[in-house]
Amino acid sequence: MSADRPGHDRQETPSGSGGGLRTAPAGRTVVVRVPATTANLGPGFDSLGLALSLYDEVTVRVLPEPGLVVSVSGVGAGEVPEDETNLVVRAVRHGFAAAGVEQPGLELRATNAIPHGRGLGSSAAAIVAGLMAARGLLDGVTELSASTMLAVATEMEGHPDNVAPALFGGLTIAWMTPDGPAYKRLLVHRGVSPVVFVPTSTLSTKLARSLQPASVPHADAAFNVSRSALLVAALIQSPELLLAATEDRLHQSYRASAMPETDGLIRMLREHELAAVVSGAGPSLLVLGSDPAQRLRAADLVARHAHTSWTPLMLAVDLGGATVVPHPAPGANVPLVVPVSK
Predict the structure, then answer these.
(1) Which of 2, 19, 53, 248 could lock 42 by a disulfide, CB 3.0 to 4.6 Å apart?
(2) What does the mean pLDDT of the chain come to?
(3) Do 196 and 24 touch, CB atoms closer than 8 A?
(4) CA-CA distance, 166 to 34, in Å (whole number)?
């Protein structure tokens, strides 16, 4: 099977002036929808990611003059910056810079539903939203390819395991090559039924990563290699293997001290033969049910055993990834929907 790799069309232009004379036409507007993602899935540390049916939506309009107007509603309202430091704005700027065009004035409205700091890919969603907005705004002006967006998003995020499923949907295997990030997208068995339990507490990815050791025993690495391979098979073909396939020795135990209730609930759920893992860097937990009944049983168990409030999110696997719907300026000729090439 072939893998998508980054192209060589990316221009290493810093955000700011894109260095070109072209840009998106004033008045052009796009609406971008990006799914939440859960990474690692137990053994697939920094490699496996899954897109979920929970979405942030961003509307971006090109202003006739330089400037920036940002508004945020939903999750993060009043907390997320509404200036050039906003992560979506930064990603739009990086997208325009990568395309080698001038930076226009922008109006940006974000409506967020993905919880922040909970291990559900909120930063990846913001980055992908900005890059997809840049792509849609530049349609008919110049191309911002999917491979370029993956490369820029990975550079901004630091790793590709969340940005790949946010861009392309479904289950993704992501890895780094000498030329940059690559990915393979796979369709998930229809029986796989995810449920995410979101606590009120947060945990930064930086803190979670700081708890990782510099090296691990060879036996643990070999253990995770076998489980990661098994997990791919379980997700695409044999969901009845999910419990065994989600075992991990590389990261979850090292991070347990930063999220003790998450760790305790995962142990409890696994004792009840449910495939529970940390979602991303945590502290949310993910249960990959082999059928819808399993996630209902998981919700009942968490409600009875949790010491604090956890919100269950009964989600589906998102198959489409990020999408952008342009609303062209008068006279512009652009398609109604611009999906990311898978």
Answers:
(1) 248
(2) 90
(3) no
(4) 6
The structure tokens listed for 241 are: 């293997």
Angle, helix 292-305 to helix 260-271, in steps of 10 degrees: 130
DSSP letter assigned to residue 163 = H
Q: Assign domain 193-314 to a CATH class.
A: alpha beta
- pTM of the full structure: 0.89
Q: Of 237, 233, 241, whose CA–CA distance to 173 is shortest?
A: 233
- What CATH number was assigned to the domain covering residues 29-184+319-330? 3.30.230.10
**Spans of all domains in the chain:** 29-184+319-330, 193-314
* Of 128, 98, 88, residue with least CA distance to 15: 98
Residue 187 CB neighbour total at 10 angstroms? 12
Rounded CA-CA distance 69/222 in Å is: 51
Q: Which regions of the chain does DSSP assign to beta strands (E)?
A: 29-40, 44-63, 68-74, 105-112, 171-177, 180-186, 193-199, 276-278, 285-289, 310-314, 323-327, 338-339
Query: pLDDT of 83-135, one tens digit each?
Result: 999 999 999 999 999 999 999 999 999 999 999 999 999 999 999 999 999 99
Cis omega (within 30 of 0) on the bond before 25?
no
